[in-house]
Amino acid sequence: MSEPHLTPSFVSRKSFIELDGRARAQSLLDKGTGTELVGPFDRVESPWLPIQGIAPQADDGCIVIKGRIADKPAVVVSLEGAFQGGSIGEVSGAKITAALDLATRDSQAGRPTAAVLLLETGGVRLQEANLGLVAVAEVIASILELRQHAPVITVVAGTVGCFGGMSLAAGVSSYVVMTREARLGLNGPEVIEQESGVEEFDASDRALIWAIHGGEQRVSMGLADALVQDSIDKIAAAVCKYVLAGKPTQHRSEQIELYRERIASLDTSQQINPLALREQWTTVESKGGVR
Amino acid sequence: MEKIEFDYPAVRRRINKRAHVGVVGSGDMEVLMEPSTTEGAHVSITTSVNGFGETWKAVFDRFFTKFDGAVSIQINDAGATPGSVLLRLEQAVEVLEQ
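C-alpha cells for the assembled complex are given below, as produced in the milestone run.
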C-alpha cells in the first residue's frame, strides 16, 4: 500500500495554502534574502480595533518582506487571511502603500523592484471604515505608479480569496496568479446574497460560487493569467516567471475598449452561463485566456 | 476585550533571542516573546474573550514551572483554548532556543 510510486505528486506536494501569511511571503523569496519591514516587534498595531473590543495583531495582518526573487530586487506583501479576514485597515493599508512606493522609488533610481501581493482579503476592514477606503485608493494609486516601472504580481491562493476593494488592486496588477481553490470578485457571495436576495446569488452553493468567482473561471475568462496547483514550488515558479518577464506591454486594465465591447455585447435578458461566458471571452484574443 | 498582566519575578535565566508565532485568528493567538528588560518574566495578554483571568494564570503558572527564561511575553488572543495557548508558548520557546 505504501509503495512510493503509488503516491500521486499532488499528495506529496508542499502546500502553499496551508502556510500562514509570513511563511507564504518567505517561501517566494530567494533563500536568505528576506528582510521584514515593520515587523511584529515594531508593534505598529491598529489603534481602532481595541476600542471596539477586538484584539489587534502586532503586524496588523500585513507582512512586508523585501528581498530578491530570481535574483532580482522584489518586495512581497502578504495579507494574513486568518486575522480579521485579511481586511485592510489604516495600518495594513499604509504598510502596503509604503512598500509599493519604496519599490517605485528604487525602480526610478535604476533598480527595478517587482512587487508581489499575496491577497487573502475580504477588502476594507469595516471597523476602520473610511480609513480602510482611503487605504484602498492609496494602494491602487501606488500600484498604478509602480507598474510603469516594474511588474506588480498578485497571487490569490485561497482559501479566503480576494474580494472588495482589494479585488480592484488585483484588477490593476500586471499579472494575477490563482489556484483552483482561490476566488476573486468585487462583491463576495455573502454580500451579494445579503444585498440582492438568495434568488440572485445563493452563498451556500459552492459549485455556483466557484463557477463564477473561482480561479479556473477567472483564468479561463482572461481576468487572471495563470492557474497553478496549490504548491509552494509551482506558485514560486509562476511568480519567478512574471518577475523575469517584467512589466507587460499593455496591462489588462488598460484594455478599455476590449472590455467595453465585451460587456456591451452581453445579453443580460437571460442569466449568463459561466461556461458560455468563458467560451465567448476566450474567442477574443486576450493574454492569459488559454492555459 | 480584556487586558491581563502577570509577573514572575523569580525567573532569572537570561534570554537573548526573540520569537513570534501564531496568528490572531479564531481560536488561535499570537505570542511575541523577547528578552525581559526588567527583573524576572512579564506577561501581558490582550484577549477578546472576557472573564478567563484565572485560567490564564493557571496556564502561565504551569508554563513557568517548566520554563525559566527571563522573557517579556505579549499575547494577542482571539479565543485560544488553554491547550492551544500552551502549544503556542512551547512553539515560541522552541524558536527562542533554536
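Chain A touches chain B at residues 20-21, 39-41, 43, 50, 53-58, 61, 80, 82-84 (CB under 8 Å). The first strand of chain A starts at residue 35 and ends at 37. Further analysis is deferred to the final report.
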